[in-house]
Amino acid sequence: MKFVLEVDMGDTAWEGNAARELGRILRYWGGNLQHYELKPGDGAAVSDSDYREVGSWSITASA
Question: Origin, by domain of life (predicted)?
Fold first, then answer.
């Protein structure tokens, strides 16, 4: 299986705050993973600190 995280940082990478935003996304979603079985097909939308959908994570079968 693979864990795939895709995040669109926009044209300005959150106005130069990419490290802060990505860190927040990783902390939040890393802690939230305990609520999923983590089997192929699982996944969810990912939001930034302004609650805008900026990507998603998913579990896929290995290629």
Answer: Bacteria
pLDDT reading at 46 higher than 80: yes
Residue 63: pLDDT over 80: no
Contact assessment for residue 29 and residue 57, using Cβ atoms and an 8 Å cutoff: yes
3-state secondary structure of 32: helix
- Quote the distance between the C-alpha of residue 30 and its chain's center: 9
Torsion sign across C-alpha atoms 6, 35, 42, 53: negative
The model carries a pTM of: 0.84
What mean pLDDT comes out for the span 20-49? 93
